[in-house]
Amino acid sequence: MELRHLRYFIAVAEEGHITRAAERLGMQQPPLSQQIKAIERELDVQLFRRKARGVELTDAGSAFLDDARATLAQLDRAVESTRRTARGEQGRICVGVTSTSSFHPIVARAIRAFSEACPKVSLTLEESLSNELLEGLRNERMDVAFIRTVPADVEGLAIQPLLDESMVAALPSGHPLAKGAKDAAIPLKRLAPETFILYGPPGTGMYDTIIAACHAAGINPNVGNLGASTQQGPRIGSTLSLVAAGLGITFVPSSLQRMNIDGVAYRRVKATTPPTARLSLATRRGDPSAIVKRFVALVRSAAKAV
User: If I label 121, which of 42, 148, 198, 269 is the partner at 20 to 30 A Cα–Cα?
Assistant: First the structure.
């Protein structure tokens, strides 16, 4: 028995008349009558009682009608589910973010737009360092990642720069350079004597970005030490806690000023080449997922709106 046979049967049952059912199905009455008889022979039951002006269901026919409708409804759901998945409207996606990228409005804007456009897609977030996020992409533990630095080895990955964000100095609130108007800019060279607190291990995340920003301004940053260890925080939150404790200063992307931490003051810096932090989107090169493509398109749209 084919699915079309179920549709034939349902049409006759709902119309109560073979001729009207044939018109509804766009076919002739004799072939439809033959198909109904063939279904009854295959099931070895009588589905309809013939009347002078139509047909009516037997008890067996009524039971079969419920199951036939359920079967076609399930098929329709399966077809629609498949189409939604192909359009990137259903399924799962894991989005990676670094601790400094998650504060940028573009991230929240893209996730919100994606959730509104694809409410049937389950979206999860994972926060980690850029190098760990990229490893997660390669291992297919996640699907896309907002990163701050691009490694030398990008084999198998596609990296799309989204924007360059200005950086600000994060100072202890009692620091002399934190006095005065909040919108006043500090000459970058005045930070040369300061002790810098870096976050993330060297070669990853914002660590190299801060070093590069200092070198671009002609500063050889004085990185503080705790005993024999370089003074650094594993994440931006712990780094700013060290700043609040008066142990040094650091640079952060300007969007992190939303992190209102007691004891930390943010100030703009001015220089010939102001320090910036790039925000990029990483995916697996050639990823065929329609969901990933849909997310990337919405991120690009969000980036253009900034």
Answer: 148
